[in-house]
Structure formats: structure tokens, C-alpha cells
Amino acid sequence: MIRHFDKIENLGVFAKYAKPPGMVPFAKFNLIYGLNGSGKTTLSRFFHDLNTGTAAGFNDLKYKISTEEGPFTQGKPYTRNIRVFNSEYVEANIGELEGTLHPIFVIGEENKALVAIVEQDEKALQQAESSHAAQLIEHGKLVKRKGKTFTEIASEISEHTAGTTTRTYRKNNAEAAFAALTAPQVMSTEVLASASKSMKQPAMDKQKSISLGNIDLQIGDKSNLPYFTALKLLEKYISGVVQTSATSIAIQRLVENPEIAQWVEHGITIHDHTDGDTCEFCQQEIPKERAQALASHFNDSDQKLKEEIEQSLQDLEALRQNQQSSFVPKKSSFYTELQEPFSATTAAFSSLKLSLFNHLSELNKLLNTKLINRTVCYEIKVPEYDAKPYLDALQEANELIEQHNAQTDKFDQRLQSTRDKIEKHFLSRIVRQVADVDVEIETVDAAIKLLTQGDIGKGTLGIEALRKRIAENRLKIANSHQAAEDLSKKLASFLGRDDLRFEPEGEGYRIMRFGRAAKRLSEGEKTAITFLYFVVGLQDQDFELAEGIVVIDDPISSLDSSSVYQAFSFLKNAVRDARQIFLLTHNFEFLKLLLDWISRVKKADKTCWMLHCTTTGGAQRETDLKPLDKILLENKNEFTYLFKILTEFESDGTVANAYPIPNIARKVLETFLEQHSAGNSFYKKLENLEYDETKKAALYKYTNDLSHPTLSGLDPALVGETQTNVKHLLEMIRIVAPVHHKALTDTLSGAS
User: What is the DSSP string of 535-581?
Assistant: First the structure.
């Protein structure tokens, strides 16, 4: 059962409805009275929409209801079935009244034995569907868990393979690669770190190999010799040079003083170029004997030896310059995995290169010593350089350079290969985890298959088979012909004549009049047919009345007074066994019948309410649900109730406050004129009444013009006109019918 409407927002006139403090809960019987435009039909539609949790055209609808089953809000369908009769019932449930009507399926007497089977199957179906839903949820959780595993591992793979491609490595990539994984391939921590580091390495430029180059030797006029071939030849040549002496008549002092000998030799060269006989140092003429002695000391043999030594020194310098200028790539120019090996190789290479420079320096020293001691003959062993370690180191360095260049040539292939290894490494780590989840998924899938398809061997029906058997048995149980007969009898009783009947046609019914398809049904006939269709429909197999909620909104439109009592009688009998009933009406005569009926119901099982609509700022209308006024409950008199509203009216100067009064004044004036004047129209009755003519004219214009809705907006004169004419109307009642007026005021005093 529904206990309260805690809130309803953004639903027409129920814009900001909130349950008043201390409001009693709804009971089994609930009567709701409301004038036209107060939100009665909107409320009946709201009841209908509770079973779906949404209302068409009201996307911003918010609500909360309290029920025996717990709270329900928008988007959450209410679980207890609700049947609603309102102005939209015909279109939604019956069809064309003068065409083929939708069938009503009720249980035939001869087939009640099948009901137990259907109920048993429905119970089994409910359990199976519940289990199926639970298994689907579990299946979803397992798939989500498995997906999370792949999402997490994809994140790790993406992190360790960053830079391989412009795309992001995602869950679906990991799943596809895992499906293609044939065997686990796990790397060590060190190998993984190295591989991951290399993935972040961009493509690098190629490096030139370290080359010794070829040497041109002045000695022997040798050209384009390999470096160490040239060195070997030079070592051999130097060995001969340092053991050679020049043939000369030596001057002992120059022999004993090589520095002086160099100085003198250089001076002779200068004098030879200037053709001078005067010593540039002492400005004395050089004696001829001294000049001859010096010439004998520095003869052609000596000059030849000197030139050989100087050429050897130049060749040594060429060898040194060659090594000095040779280019060795930097460590940072190599791929990460080659940097350390290359650094170690070049360290050894640099050490060997230093030893080569030391060897060249030693040879240079020997030659310079010989240069100033050309006339001295002595034996000395010239050292020989072992080139093998140097050449081995050079070869190792160049091999690393070749590896580097090969990686550059096949950079994309190398990256893809490394990426695949990293991918397989991480996917291998989740093989067991995925296998465990797959086993759980297979178990759940088997359970789902059993629930949907059943087990023929064990005689267990699946969900589809249960649904099929239930549908087949329902067709056997359901009897639309019986419903047609029931409708015909009730319609005859309702109208007091039997000219209209419901006849089965195809899968539905057609309304017949004297054996022919009925045409031009009166509004009263249409209302009777519609209401009876609803009443009989409460017995159909898809609605359990004892557990359902029935909502009826004004079933008596277009009915004459006698038919109103028939409608009331059918209504009472049709809904009394429902779990909960809501009866909505704007008709005061029907309200009195309903109040009289529920007066015999226990107080705890009934509630009476009225819809109170007011106009707020900006002409926005809002409705509240309030307890039914005591005047209506105790006197069952609408005129007294409306008279009370007028006597209590106090204008606050706003249109919102005055807006509903013209309609109320019109209804009070019409009822008063019916009792106290004669005439065939509203105007004639007012004209025949003995009262101030000017005030009568004002009352006529006010109640006639302002009580009807227009499209021209609110009349700004409404506030002033309402204040004036309410006073005129109350004054007219007091003057024209003082006894009636006193009875009204006494009633109001007693009710307060």
C-alpha cells in the first residue's frame, strides 16, 4: 500500500508538493475531492506512471513515495500493480468504441484446474528468473573482474613500452595478445629493466668506425702505408740512423759541447746565405783557417745524416698527429644497451693509445739525441711497439659501432621485437589469474544455460520452456467470450435496457445494437461502456485485485442522474476487495454518495482529502493535498463549503490570491438563483431577482467574464473586481434570503 506522497516536483500543478507535517497516511479507502483544474487528472496519471517510474513529457519529474514495500523514487518502478481509470483509459486499453475492442481474458469455470499448474509454473519461473538474474549479475562481475585484470596489465605494458607507437596500449590490445600467447615467457628483473629502458630510446644517428688511416713516409719516399706498417718501417729506419756517424775532422770542443755545435752550425748557415766574412756576434773577421776547420767539421756526410734524422722526426710527428686527430664517438651517441660495453672498450683503447704516444715520444727522444751527436758512433736498441692489443681494442670498438649502426638500420624491427617480449612477459604473469576467472565464468555460464534451456534428462524445464507452457495454459484458461457475456449483462443493468451487447469478433469484441454494429453512441453510453470495461477488466488474469491498487477518476461524466447511482453501485462492488482504493471526483453529488458509503468503514481504513490549487508568482498554479473540509464532511453540502470560502476571502492585493474566486462566485450565484429566483437562463434568473440593478449588472459581468479561461492573459482588474463583487454577492444573499443566510452562518459557526 501507498502511505504518503513525500514529495512531487515538476509535474504540472504539482510543482513543489511536499507532505505536510503530521499528515496521516493513506488507508485502504481514500477519497480525493477537487474542482476542475485542481490537478485531479494529473494525479491519476501519476498513479499510472508509478509502475514505470517515469512520466512522459516530464523529464524533470522528481518524486518520493512511502509504501509498505519501502520508499520509491523517480526511475524506480513501484512493484505493486496499479489499475487506473481516467480520461486516457479508453485510448490506452479499449480501442475504438465503434470498432473492434481489445479482449478481456477472465478465468473460465471449466478450466480452473489448470490455474494451480499455472501458479506452480509461475512460481518456478519467478525463482528461475531470479536465479538467472543473479547469475547474470555474477557473470557480469566476473567479466568485469577479468576485464580489470587486462586493464591493469595493459597499463603496465603501456608504461614499459612507452615510445613504441603513437597509440595507447589498451585493454582490448592486451586481450587480443593474450589470446595469441602460446606459452609463458617471463624475463628477469634486470632484463626487463634494460628492455623497458631501450623502449624509451629514440632512433640514433649512425657512427663512423674508428680508422687509423694511411701514412706517407718521407724516408724511402713511401706513401699510403697502413699505420702500423709505417711505424714498423720507421722503427727499423731509426734503428739504423742512430747507429750511424758522420765522417769529419772533428773539432774536439764542438764534439764535447753539442749545444755549442748546434749554435755554430746554425750560424754557419746564416753566414753562407749572406756571403759575409765578419762574425755577426763579435764583428771580427773570421779567420780563413777557422772557417776551413768548421767546414771540415760540418761536411756533406754530416748534412746527409742530419736530413735523415729530421725526416724521421717529421714522420714520427705525422704518426702522432694521425692518432691525435682520430675521432672516437661519445658514449652518449650509442643505444643504451651498448653504452657500457663501448665505454669499457674505449677505456682500454685510450690506455693503449697513450702507450703508443709514449712509444712515439721515446723514438723522438732517440732521434733528437742523435741529431746533436751525429759524429758519435754508438750502439743502441730501438724499442718495437706491439700493435696487437691496440688493433684488438680497435676491432672491438668498431664491432660495437657496427652493432649500433645495425640497430639504427633495423630500429623499428628491434622496437617491435622488444615490445613483444615485454608484452609477453606481463601477459605471462596473469595466465594463472585469468585461468581461475575463466573457470568461474564457465561455471556461471553452465548455470545460466541450465536455467534458460533446462535439463531434458532430469525433466527440468528452462525459462523459455516455462514461459511457453504458462502462455499455452493461460490460453486454455482464459475465456474472452465469458468476459463479453459479463459485459453485456452489466451494460444492460447499467443502462436499464438490453439493446447494446458485446459480441466476440476476431481477437476482441464489437458493440452491437439490435444485431448490428452500433453507431453514433451517446456520450452517456460511451461513459457507461468505458467504465464497465474497466470494472470487468479488474477480473482479468493479469491483475490480482486483492494485491493491487485501484484508482478511479470521475467515472460519471456525461451520465444522467439515474446512471450515476448505477455507476456508484458497480464501483462499490468492483473495488471493495482491492488492496487499496483511491477515488477522485469533482462532482459533488457523486462525492456525497462516496462519503455516505465510506461512512460505514472503520476510521482507520479510510481517509478523505481535497486538492487545493492556488496561483503563485508569475501565474504559476500549484496544488496541495489537504484534509477534506469539515463543512463537506459534516454537511455534505457544496454550497455551504463555497459560501465559507467567500466569507473567509481576504484580498492581499495579488492576482494569485484572487484568481480562483470568480469560478467559486459563479457556482455560488448559480446555486442561489436556482433556489431563490425563476427564469430559463442564468441571466434571466439574476434579472428577476429583487436587488440593486447596478450591483446585479456588476455581478453578472464579473461571474460571466472572469470565470472563463481566456488566452489573453490575466486581467489586471481582477483584484479590485473580486474585492467588490464578493461583498456584493454576500450582501445580496443576506438581503434577498436572510433566513437562508442565517442558517449558513450558523452552520459555519458550528463547524468552527
Answer: HHHTTSTT--GGG-EEEEE-TTTT--HHHHHHHHHHHHHHHTTSSEE
CA distance linking residue 352 with residue 371, whole number of Å: 29
**Could you tell me the CA-to-CA distances from 597 to 399, 473, 593 in Å, in that order?**
109, 40, 6
Claim: this prediction has a pTM higher than 0.70: no
The letter for the amino acid at 648 is E
Tens of pLDDT, residue by residue over 637-696, are 778 888 888 888 876 667 767 777 888 899 899 989 988 888 888 889 889 899 999 998
pLDDT greater at residue 424 or residue 730 = 730
Kindly state the greatest CA–CA separation across the chain: 182
Contact between 252 and 411 (Cβ < 8 Å): no
d(CA 335, CA 204): 7
Confidence of residue 201 (pLDDT cuts 50, 70, 90): low
What is each CA distance from 751 to 33, 527, 617, 633, in whole angstroms? Answer: 19, 37, 32, 10
Distance CA 351, CA 363 (A): 19
- In the chain, residues under CATH classification 3.40.50.300 are 1-95+522-628
CA dihedral 712, 716, 720, 723 (to 10 degrees): 50
Q: What is the CATH number of domain 1-95+522-628?
A: 3.40.50.300
462 phi-psi bin (left φ>0, alpha ψ -120 to 50, beta other): beta
Distance CA 231, CA 234 (A): 5
String of b and e for 519-547 (b: at least 16 CB within 10 Å)? eebeebbbbbbbbbbbbbbbbbeeeebee
Residue positions counted in the chain: 752
Please name the amino acid found at residue 453. Answer: Q
Q: Which of 213, 100, 32 is nearest to 612 (CA)?
A: 32
Alpha carbon distance 563, 525 (integer Å):
10
Residue pair 716/742 in contact by the 8 Å Cβ criterion: no
Cα-Cα end-to-end distance for the chain: 33
pLDDT at 163 over 60: no
d(CA 274, CA 256): 28
Distance CA 209, CA 644 (A): 113
Q: Are 587 and 556 in contact (CB under 8 A)?
A: yes
Whether the Cβ atoms of residue 106 and residue 484 lie closer than 8 Å to each other: no
Count of other CB atoms within 10 angstroms of residue 589:
14
Q: How many CB atoms lie within 10 A of CB 125?
A: 20
Ranges of H-type helices in 454-500: 463-477, 480-495
What count of other Cβ atoms lies within 10 Å of the Cβ of residue 319? 23
Give pLDDT tens digits for 357-369. Answer: 898 888 888 888 8
Residue in 667, 668, 690, 664 with CA at minimum distance from that of residue 677: 690
- From the CB of residue 202, how many other CB atoms can be counted at a distance below 10 Å? 7
